[in-house]
Amino acid sequence: MLKVVPSEEVAEALAAGRPVVALESTIISHGLPQPRNLEVALELEEIVRSAGAVPATIAVLDGVPRAGLDREGLERIATEPGLRKLGFRDLAPAAALKVSGATTVSGTSFLAARAGIRVFATGGLGGVHRGWTTVQDESADLDTLGRTRITVVCAGVKSILDVPATLQRLETRQVTVVGYRTDEFPGFYLHTSGEPVDWRIETAAEAAGIMRAQDLLGGPETALIVANPVPVADQLDPALHDRVLAEALRAADEQGVAGQAITPFLLEYLVNGTDGASLEANLAAVRGNARLAGEIAASWSRED
Ligand code: PSU
Ligand code: MN
Questions:
Q1: CB 150 within 8 A of CB 115
Q2: Is 111 exposed, middle or buried (0-12, 13-18, 19+ CB in 10 A)?
Q3: For ligand 1, atom 9, which residue shows the shortest CA distance?
Q4: Residue 161 forms beta bridges with which residues?
Q5: Which of 36, 84, 108, 122 should be mutated for ligand 1, with most atoms under 8 A from CB?
Q6: N or C: which end of the chain has fewer CB within 10 A?
Q7: How far is the CA of 204 from the centre of ligand 2 (A)?
Q8: ipTM for the complex?
Q9: Residue 231 burial (CB count, 10 A)
């Protein structure tokens, strides 16, 4: 079997049943501008640690899937030119052809689960793109979450997407969605998307309890999404968000940007079009998610 190679620290923590949190690498390589992205990769690991868990940033280096990168590995993810973006379906070619790449939510969820890691933190999930009636672009994140036993802490799905359509797809795929201290699904850069969420939890221990109930219940091995909104004080101004996003969607259309390139294109457009304000909101969301994921992993491994 093709092994996911853990770092020494991650291997020790998993063997001892201590809390581990998987961190995604595409957000570092393709979602954030250099040089800020390396600082963020290091900072997220620190946040997970201070919440009492061991961080395991996931990526494929020279064809080897890894859970837990050293400083050099993080630097490669942040700076290597031409680094691939790997969803689940890209993992086999990357391994066989000895290619390096950062993993998306789809690729990371699969590798984390294979490594025995149950909790994962990211920014915003991929989903159904706007205009899906003509262009059938639906992120592989959704399909993977419908067949992977993992808990993903995120600030909802990226607001560049069709959020109601994405929530519908998550329902069809049996993915459990809970709001953390909210009755509304978060809007990634925005505190709320305006869409309701059926379940609300108040504590990390409640999330761990739902994970245990998932296992006791059996059935399809689906994910748990813990949707954790960016605080109102840190969100992007909603009017600015709507205006620049409309421009970004128009630019993508005019330039014919599609496929894997569309998400990074729109995120970068927003960073430039908001003078960096969208970047700050994105970072505030990811930091909060890393912290909460650490707490959930700690509660899960304490069995409280
Ligand atoms: N969260 C962020 N920034 C990102 C992503 C998530 O804050 O860049 C990445 C994730 O890796 C997610 C991917 O899986 O965007 C979705 O890409 P696509 O729409 O091509 O599936
Ligand atoms: Mn896509």
A1: no
A2: buried
A3: 27
A4: 129
A5: 122
A6: N
A7: 31
A8: 0.92
A9: 12
Q: What are phi and psi of 89, to 5 degrees?
A: -65, -15
- In ligand 1, the atom with minimum distance to the C-alpha of 102 is 11
What pLDDT tens digit does each residue of the chain (304 aa) get? 789 999 999 999 999 999 999 999 999 999 999 999 999 999 999 999 999 999 999 999 999 999 999 999 999 999 999 999 999 999 999 999 999 999 999 999 999 999 999 999 999 999 999 989 888 899 999 999 999 999 999 999 999 999 999 999 999 999 999 999 999 999 999 999 999 999 999 999 999 999 999 999 999 999 999 999 999 999 999 999 999 999 999 999 999 999 999 999 999 999 999 999 999 999 999 999 999 999 999 999 987 6
With contact defined as beta carbons under 8 Å apart, do 269 and 247 qualify?
Answer: yes
**Eight-class DSSP state of 34:** T
User: In sequence order, what DSSP letters do the residues of 80-101 get, joined into one string?
Assistant: -TT-EEE-HHHHHHHHHTT--E
Tokens describing residue 300: 């899960």
Pocket test for ligand 1, best of 141, 143, 269 (most atoms within 8 A of CB): 141
Start-to-end CA span in the chain (Å): 34
DSSP 229-275: PPPGGGSPPHHHHHHHHHHHHHHHHHHT--GGGHHHHHHHHHHHHTT
Angle at 257 between CA 279 and CA 154, to 5 degrees: 40
Is residue 200 within 8 Å of residue 129, measured between CB atoms?
no
158 is catalytic: yes
> Is 24 one of the annotated active-site residues of the chain?
yes
Measured in Å, residue 197 CA sits from the centre of ligand 1 at: 21
Q: Which residue type, as a one-letter code, is found at position 270? A: L
